[in-house]
Prior knowledge:
Elements: H1 2-27, H2 29-40, H3 49-72, H4 95-131
Helix pairs in contact: 1-2, 1-3, 1-4, 3-4
Amino acid sequence: MPHMRVYLNYCVNQANAGKVLQSLRDANPELSARLQCLREDSSARNLDLSSCLLVPMQRLTRYPLLIRQILQYTDPPTPTPDLFVAPRLTLSLPTEHAERESIANSLACAERILEEVNETVRDREGRERLVR
């Protein structure tokens, strides 16, 4: 998954991006003033560029929560009929089970990706502490 590697790289370097942005602001008052003007623009909803840098990582943490909610509200497969109860006509679509299974697989995948990103970020932060 090449797009996963790009996302992973972004998330790992996101903290560093905030530091670089701050050092650029400190070194360049014109840039700082321009970024402040952009922040005050109504389309920016008073969000600073550093806040926008956080969005991809925040989004990644919300995917498992969203998928878990979808799974919760997805109808479970129709139960298997009880042999001791008089048979009744029920309609069970073969896609019911496949749909829930697909959502559950998506949840597991989102959780694995989030765990990999978190682990990589922790490793990176640990190496940075050792260097300091």
